[in-house]
Structure formats: structure tokens, C-alpha cells
Amino acid sequence: MTWNLDSSRPIYAQIAEQVHLDIISGLYQPGTKLPSVRELAAQAKVNPNTMQKALTELERSGLVHSMRTSGRFITEDTDMIKRMKEDLAADQIKEFLEKMSSMGFQPQDTLQLIEKILREEKS
Amino acid sequence: MTWNLDSSRPIYAQIAEQVHLDIISGLYQPGTKLPSVRELAAQAKVNPNTMQKALTELERSGLVHSMRTSGRFITEDTDMIKRMKEDLAADQIKEFLEKMSSMGFQPQDTLQLIEKILREEKS
DNA sequence: ACTATTGTATTATGAACTTAATACAATAGT
DNA sequence: ACTATTGTATTAAGTTCATAATACAATAGT
């Protein structure tokens, strides 16, 4: 797990989002136990309170739940994870297209630009 | 000009970004005078200090410059605007593809998903 | 039974952000 | 010359965020 944090948004929100993505992408398997708050905080080099806040935030999504003294676990509801992945992907795409649109790129322009950039990256 | 602000990031940063986009998209024409700080603040329903901070921030990009008492103006350097538009678009695309990738969608998957969503939106 | 580990709560401090209320210097327009 | 408008600066207050330093209750593991 590599933590990629900046100062553009609250750190706890960035952490919550990243763990969210890691669950959705399957990096964290359903039913798995998460490292402890203190350990995750150490890994991410943030205060335990900040990590706690991030995880509490994540809990509201239903993707994780805490078992008092045995730790925090990823949900085993694979359908839910799948649904969230689809929803989030759709949201990301709409948000992205909207931003491109506000720059003057219509969806078709955007698609072509993406393809152009992908071609360039291959070299 | 409709202002779309939320609490996820500093307001001044969101304003700076939106004006930036409006210049890049051509909504604000090169050489044009911007409304005054106080008027823009009233439009966006934020404090004049906040709008001032947003515009000062924008000035660092070189897209606008202030003329003491006659107001703030959009740069006339259309080449610069064009260049910034291209750069920003490329950045947005890369950032987007990276996020999709962290969710488990490879670029080709993402392209197909976008096309699927565009088809769905037509109906 | 004991102990370490778990999530959680509390209090304090400092920084960043936002609003508010003013004030000032420069100058465009009259 | 006068006046209103411009960008800009200052000071104060309140909120959110992050860190720090502890502390507590519950329980898994021994």
C-alpha cells in the first residue's frame, strides 16, 4: 500500500477515498482484516486520530465494519462491492466529461484526445 | 457565470479553477475586463477577501493581470491560452485514467465504458 | 487470570480557511 | 478639482483540520 497524499483536500478524506478504491479494485479482499488504526497511521505517516477519522468515514459507506477489539474488516458482500464499483466508475466518467466539456471539449473530442494520448504514451 | 462551489476544497481554489476554465474555454475572451472583485464576490456569494485571494492565485498563472484602478484583464496572449488548454486537458486525462486504473479499469476498459455511458445518455 | 492489542474518546495546540468590517492609495470619469 | 471605483491591506473572530499526548473499555491470545 503506497499512500499518495497532498494538501489539496483534507487528508482523512483522501485516505478514505484511497482505501475505498483499494476495496473496489480488489486489492483488499472481501472479509479480510485491515491493519490496525495505529499501524495504518504509521504506514501513511499520519496521526492515528486522522486515520481513525478516515476509517470512521469509510464505515458510513458500509464497505468496512469494526469488531471492537478484533479489528476492522472488509465487507463480504461482493455484490455490494461490485455495485459500488460500477456506480463510482460512472460517477468518475460523468465528472470527467463535465470538466472536459467546461474546457470546450465535447465528448467526441475527449474520446479522440484520450486515444491520441494513449498512442503517445506507448512510445 | 454560474458558481458551483462545495466544501470539499478551499473555496478560493475552486473559484480560481473555474475562472481558469472559463478563460481556457473561451467564455472569457482575451483582453476582456473582468468584473470587479466586489462584484464577482457578490455574484459568487463569497467574501470579497476570498474572491481577492482566488484572483491573486489566478494571476500567478499569467492568465490575468490587474491594472491597479482600472480593473483586471484577461491576457491577450492567445497562444498561451491555447497551450494551457492543451496542457490542462492532457493532465485531466492522465489523472482520470490513473483513477480509473486504481479502480481496476485499464485504459481500454475505460474507453469502452465511456462509450457505453454516452450511448445510455442519449436515451 | 494476565497481558497485549483493539477501537475509541478527550483535551490541547497550531495552522489554514472564511467571513466581517474597515481602511487606504491610485486613477478613471466627470 | 471632485468623486466614485479600482485593487489591496489589516485586524479580529469562528470553523475545520491535523497533530500530540493520553486514557479507557473490551477482548483475543496466552
Question: How is the secondary structure organized here?
Answer:
Two copies of one chain form a homodimer.
Chain A: H1 11-24, H2 37-44, H3 48-59, E1 64-66, E2 72-74, H4 78-102, H5 107-121
Antiparallel strand pairs in A: 1-2
The first copy, chain A, binds a DNA duplex (30 and 30 nucleotides) through helix 3.
Give a quick rundown of the structure.
Two copies of one chain form a homodimer. Chain A is built from five helices and two strands. Chain A is mainly α.
Apparent shape of chain A? elongated
Widest beta sheet: strand line-up of chain A: 1-2
Largest sheet of chain A: 2 strands, antiparallel
| Class by SSE composition of chain A | mainly alpha
Q: Span from first to last CA of chain A?
A: 29 Å
Q: Taking all residues together, what is the mean pLDDT of chain A?
A: 96
Overview of this protein structure:
- Chain A is mainly alpha-helical and 123 residues long.
- Chain A folds into two domains: 11-76, Winged helix-like DNA-binding domain superfamily/Winged helix DNA-binding domain (Arc Repressor Mutant, subunit A, Orthogonal Bundle), CATH 1.10.10; 79-121.
- Chain A contains five helices and two strands.
- Chain A has helices at 11-24, 37-44, 48-59, 78-102, 107-121, and strands spanning 64-66, 72-74.
- A two-stranded antiparallel sheet of chain A has the order 1-2.
- In chain A, helix 1 crosses helix 3 and helix 2 crosses helix 3 (48-59).
- The model of chain A has no long low-confidence stretch (mean pLDDT 96).
- The A-B interface holds A 8-9, 13, 18, 21-22, 24-26, 85, 88-90, 92-94, 96-97, 99-100, 102-105, 107, 110-111, 113-115, 117-118 and B 8-9, 13, 21-22, 24-26, 85, 88-90, 92-94, 96-97, 99-100, 102-105, 107, 110-111, 113-115, 117-118.
- The structure holds a DNA duplex (30 and 30 nucleotides).
